[in-house]
Amino acid sequence: DWVTGDCNYAFAELTQTERLILKLSYEDGKTDSEIAEQLGFHRNTVLKYRHQAKENLAAAIERLKREDLFY
Question: What's the pLDDT at 22?
């Protein structure tokens, strides 16, 4: 499963917290406030993690494309 890291190379480079926040947000449709409450974080912390995860994911995808590992 992609939250624990058993996933493609790009998602595997994210932290487990980053993957979990992306899953809760995009797959489960939870709001930032709901995620924050569930994880015990402040809402702004959730925003920071999601923003960082998206940047890290984009960078990983670009690197993997250059190395012909992204499919």
Answer: 94
